[in-house]
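The authors assume throughout that readers already know how a fold can be written as discrete tokens. In essence, backbone conformation is discretised, so a fold becomes a row of integers matching the chain in length. A single example would do more here than another paragraph of explanation. For illustration, here is how one protein appears when written out as sequence plus structure tokens:

…
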Amino acid sequence: MSKVANYLNEHIAGEVITNSAVLKAFSHDASVLSMTPEMVVYPRSTNDIRKIARFSWQLAEKGHVLAITPRGGGTDQTGAAIGSGVIVNTTAHLTSIFELDTKQKLIRLQPGVTFGALNSALLLHGLHIPSYPASGNYSTVGGAIANNASGILSGKYGDTKAWVSQLEVVLASGDVLQTGRISKRELNRKKGLQTFEGEIYRGIDSLVTDNQELIEGTIASDVRDNSGYGGIADVKRKDGSMDLTPLFVGSQGTLGVISEVIMKSEFCNSQVMVGAAAFHSYDGARDAVDTLFDLEPSILEVIDARLFASALERGKKYAFYDQALEQGDVGAVVIFAFDEFSERARRKKAKKVTKLFKDKVVALEIEEDHDEAQTLLALREVSALALLPDEKEASAPAIIDGAYIPFQRFEDFASAVDTLAKKHGIEMPLYGHGLESIFYARPILHLRKVGDKQKIFKLLDEYTTLVSAHGGHIIGEAGEGRLKASFAAKQYDADVAELFSAIRTIFDPLGTLNPGVKQSADLKQLVSQLRTDFDTADFAGKAYFN
């Protein structure tokens, strides 16, 4: 054990581990990248995190950078949960739910609580947080906030940032900051503090003032760009009040380490009506989405029929899809749901759908019975089979997931993606969230082959170009991390990139917080970090569905 690890072990209540097997386990997340840390720390309190950050800060002042990487469940797909320094893992001890205010529907908890455990606790009171991601049963609340994660219900209810009320954050210096909206008067008091917190408030206030036109005209309008620090658009209001919370949401551990959270919740209705519609082509699916959008569904998914064909080759059958094939060729399937508390309202919408889709679908089924509805909803999980290719040593890494494409451009985009896939000799069927216009593709690759490793960055580059050409954003969901940072930056204007860099410098002047994440990297450096052992073992036993 190194002197640094020994020192930290002496001064914190948690544990510092340098065992090679542990370091190897934490050298990768759910991305295609790998980086071995110096040590893994399991803090037991905010005070532990403070001591780690303060020690790292003091080393950096002397010219020695000991990077800090916050980590929850390790489900990040962009390399944001790996680092070369200290991994601060929240899942061992920071897992308490402290209190629930049922009147205000607020819950206070630690960042290592899984989203599944959080919603299970809330459901006992008829509440939930609807932004839970697909990996929610084993990914953490802290990770969801760090990535501004979204899920199946986010199209109607918003992504994670809509449900974060306040944060307790350990800053790079080891100081603790409590976020929340403060008045203009309180802001002036904060700016007068001769502390690192005071420096942050002064710096951010000046940045917002100096870049008001850029923030309001460019950043605020990019509603589906989840890269950089777009939360700057929501920090300061016209009344002079300020809240730093939006900056930390989606920052992927580059501005501070989240140590405590207060989240909002909402009433949950377990009686949901689910429908599925099969169409001959994407053209019909696009028109269906336009129609359904006006009915305000809680779920609206679009799935390429090739995914069902792939599942069928492996013996997996879906009754709805099989019945649809008996009626004709299927190009795409649309899945939707209505979750109004009024049974009458749900049935009224179902009747509208039946009427509007008449003679336009290959097949249509709408179910209200819980078990039947869940069977229909399970259709969307066909996309998970893309993660589990049968071929030995093949894998389907999430390298181009989560792009935003305006839905009116989707059919043209899907055609362009097919052309790109054929160029590289692979298949990339699309599936996604219609309400958010967020789409996914999982190319099947052999990462032990040099040629396929080279394809990763060619695909990322060309896919980014396609997304831009169709009016979209490569980072429509989650963050850019290490893997996609250079490609996300291609979509920025120089002044936006400069603003984001300035924000980061204010919070992390010595470069100790997750360096390399949300920062453009040399292609050779990224290639050197590529894994060769990315396989389905990473997801064994996990319902890794989008």
